[in-house]
Every structure is written in structure tokens, then in C-alpha cells.
């Protein structure tokens, strides 16, 4: 049995054990990374830890720490009520406001995880306050971020268009952007209908469920809340205007608030989503081992050698979706687009449609709790059964992985656009 196949079977075993025994999947994944890395791939500790997502660790800790402080001192309650007044009490509009807000942030240049890190904690606070499904709200935030993610001036858009140019493939920046926007808008509409969005039209904000402390916290702007609001604004400016790291910026701002108002912040450290941090970092470390030992490249090259262009295109879309649910979306596109070059050169597959299909397949799955965006949503949700919410995100992500690549392949690749 090849090392690559062994590593895939071990990953499947991690999923089965974690699901049936209620063990933190991250802990199992760290053990698997150690075992497979040492015994199968002959990697040393540096090789095993090469895939440890240090940047994501800091983002998860920093953002959840900062917003735990905001919840503790009543800032998020104030924000929720202020925003409800802006939408004139129409609770059903809130998920769509979050969708277009994150879409606008990524369209003008914010990295998708940074936009989700900014919007998700506020959006999930709305969900907790007004009885909105956290899965609905989280999906709207992530799909909004991906909807705007391929504009010609966005990070994703410029990277993919640059790869296309480097590989001397025909490209269409506008088609790429609109394809992603329409795909995510359609998915968001389906999610809105299926997960309770329609009933929100009948729910006025003044009769929606509230936390017991709501009436005591919704009115006054105390110095601590003003400082917290200023910190949240500073986070947005630092990320969007100065391209600073969202995680490091959030940790710094949280530490400053804690130093000035220690009573409000004392419990915030315990509210950092540590179980989520362990889960995500463990799984991604194992995926890093797969990358180090060549498993991902092995699977992609095997597909490219099939010899049936349409079938190879479909399988590449699925590989992009499956791997991206655990790893960097842009990194996966950077690997898969060159793999598609040989059969695109045959002229049987339209390059524009294929590239758009790969882009959508590799990013629409970012609602998976193992991806950066999905992990941020999971970590940001207050007052939820986190294990139950994790399973919901995993099931929803699995449905997206199973359905979307086939749909975009049928709509964009089979007709031969490009």
C-alpha cells in the first residue's frame, strides 16, 4: 500500500473515531500527524509542524478574545440594538446586511478570513439575540465573503487572474467575479429559505428573544464601551487600510483593553474558543503532513492522467472542494489550475468556464468548520452548543462539497465556455 493511500485512510479513521467516540478531532489529528509523519513519511518534528497554522491560531485566539471582552462589557449588546434601529426593526434583513457587508469588504480588497473575522462575531451576536439560526447567519457571512472575493481588485481575484496570465490561458476577470457572486448569492438564498429566514419577516425586533441582561446594557455608552468600539474600528482600519495581520492586531487591542479594565476582561480569556483552536489546528497540521508527503499532488496528478477531459475536469473540481475544506483555497487553486493546463490545451474544455468552476468549487466550501472562515464562525458563536454547531457546519459543508462542484461543472464546463 502506498504512503499516500495510507495517509488518506488514516484521515478517514480520524473522522470516524472523532464522530463515534466524541473525541476532539484536533487531538486525534495531532496524534495522526505524529504517527504518519514519523512512521510513514519519515518526517522530523520540523516537517510535521510545517503545516501548523500559526497565523490561524492567532486569528482565532485574538478575535474571540477581543469579542469576548466586547460581550463582557456590553458593547455587542449596544451594537445589536443600534443596528436594529438602522434596519427599522426588520430582523429578516439582518442576515442579508451581513452577506453584503462581508461581500463589500472582500470586493474592495480585504482577505476573506479578515472580513469574516470582523463581521462574524457581530453577526452571530445578532443571531443569539434574535433567535436566528447560527448556521444561517454563519453561512450568510461566509458566502458573502466569497461572493465578493473574486472582484478584479480583490485578493482572490488578482491571484487567480495572475495564475491564468502566467499559464498563458484565456481569462475573463468580469466573468470570474460574476460567476462567484451569482453562485454564492443563489446558495445564500437557498440557505435563507431552508434555515428559517422566511419566518423572520414575521418577527418584529421588539418582541424577539433577548438575554436577561439586555435591558440593562442596551442604552448607555460607558467609557469601556467607547474604547471597545474604538478598538473594533481600529481593527477594521488596520486590516483594510494598512494590511496588518487581523489576529495580531486583535490580540494587541484585547490586551490593551484588559490592562485598562481588568474587571470586565478577567473572564474573557476563559471564553476564547480553545476547543475550536485545538480542533482546527490539529486537523490542519495533519493536512500539512499530507502536503509535505505529496499526497495532495499525487491525487491531482492521478486525475490529470485520466485522459477524458470532461471527467478530469469534474474530478479536479471535487478535489479542489474537498481539499479546500481543510486547507488554503488560494493555494489549492494555484495547484489545480496548472494541473488543468494539459487538457485545456486540447481545446475540448473552455478555459474561462473551467477556471471559474475551479474558483467556485475551491472557495464556496469555506463554510466548513475546518476552513479558516468556518472556524471563525464556529469560534464566534456565543451561547450555542458548540459541538452541535460544529456538526451542523460539518454536515452543511459536506453537502456543499457534494453538490456544488457537480453543478458548476454542469453549468460552466460542459457547455464549453471560454
Automatic annotation (TrEMBL):
Keyword flag Cytoplasm: no
Stretches that traverse the bilayer: 47-70, 91-108, 114-132, 144-164, 176-195, 232-260, 272-289, 310-337, 349-381, 393-417
Cited Pfam families: MatC_N
Transmembrane helix among keywords: yes
Domain Dicarboxylate carrier MatC N-terminal: residue ranges: 1-149
Alphabetized UniProt keyword annotations: Membrane, Transmembrane, Transmembrane helix
Name this protein carries in UniProt: Dicarboxylate carrier MatC N-terminal domain-containing protein
Amino acid at each position: 500500500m502506498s504512503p499516500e493511500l495510507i495517509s488518506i485512510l488514516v484521515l478517514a479513521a480520524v473522522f470516524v473515531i472523532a464522530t463515534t467516540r466524541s473525541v476532539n478531532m484536533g487531538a486525534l489529528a495531532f496524534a495522526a500527524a505524529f504517527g504518519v509523519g514519523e512512521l510513514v513519511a519519515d518526517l522530523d518534528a520540523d516537517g510535521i509542524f510545517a503545516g501548523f497554522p500559526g497565523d490561524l491560531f492567532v486569528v482565532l485566539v485574538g478575535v474571540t478574545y477581543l469579542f469576548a471582552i466586547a460581550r463582557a462589557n456590553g458593547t455587542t449588546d449596544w451594537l445589536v440594538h443600534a443596528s436594529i434601529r438602522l434596519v427599522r426593526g426588520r430582523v429578516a434583513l439582518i442576515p442579508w446586511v451581513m452577506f453584503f457587508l462581508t461581500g463589500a469588504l472582500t470586493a474592495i480588497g480585504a482577505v476573506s478570513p479578515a472580513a469574516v473575522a470582523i463581521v462574524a462575531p457581530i453577526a452571530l451576536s445578532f443571531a443569539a439575540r434574535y433567535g436566528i439560526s447560527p448556521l444561517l447567519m454563519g453561512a450568510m457571512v461566509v458566502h458573502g465573503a466569497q461572493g465578493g472575493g473574486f472582484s478584479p481588485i480583490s485578493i482572490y481575484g488578482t491571484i487567480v487572474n495572475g495564475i491564468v496570465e502566467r499559464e498563458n490561458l484565456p481569462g475573463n476577470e468580469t466573468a470570474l467575479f460574476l460567476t462567484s457572486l451569482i453562485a454564492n448569492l443563489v446558495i445564500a438564498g437557498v440557505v435563507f429559505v431552508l434555515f428559517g429566514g422566511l419566518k423572520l419577516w414575521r418577527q418584529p425586533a421588539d418582541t424577539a428573544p433577548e438575554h436577561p441582561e439586555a435591558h440593562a446594557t442596551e442604552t448607555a455608552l460607558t467609557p469601556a464601551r467607547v474604547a471597545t468600539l474604538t478598538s473594533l474600528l481600529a481593527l477594521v482600519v488596520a486590516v483594510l487600510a494598512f494590511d496588518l495581520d487581523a489576529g495580531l492586531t486583535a490580540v494587541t487591542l484585547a490586551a490593551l483593553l484588559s490592562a485598562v479594565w481588568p474587571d470586565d476582561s478577567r473572564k474573557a480569556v476563559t471564553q476564547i474558543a480553545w476547543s475550536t483552536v485545538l480542533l482546527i489546528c490539529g486537523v490542519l497540521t495533519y493536512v500539512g503532513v499530507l502536503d509535505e508527503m505529496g499526497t495532495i499532488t499525487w491525487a491531482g496528478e492521478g486525475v490529470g492522467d485520466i485522459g477524458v477531459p470532461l471527467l478530469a475536469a469534474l474530478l479536479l473540481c471535487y478535489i479542489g472542494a474537498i481539499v479546500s475544506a481543510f486547507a488554503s483555497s488560494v493555494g489549492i487553486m494555484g495547484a489545480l489550475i496548472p494541473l488543468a493546463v494539459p487538457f485545456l490545451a486540447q481545446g475540448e474544455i473552455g478555459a474561462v468556464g473551467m477556471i471559474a468552476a475551479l474558483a467556485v468549487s475551491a472557495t464556496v466550501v469555506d463554510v466548513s468548520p475546518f476552513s479558516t472562515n468556518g472556524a471563525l464562525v464556529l469560534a464566534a458563536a456565543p451561547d450555542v452548543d458548540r459541538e452541535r454547531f460544529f456538526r451542523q457546519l460539518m454536515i452543511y459543508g459536506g453537502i456543499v462539497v457534494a453538490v456544488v462542484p457537480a453543478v458548476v461543472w454542469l453549468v460552466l464546463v460542459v457547455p464549453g465556455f471560454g
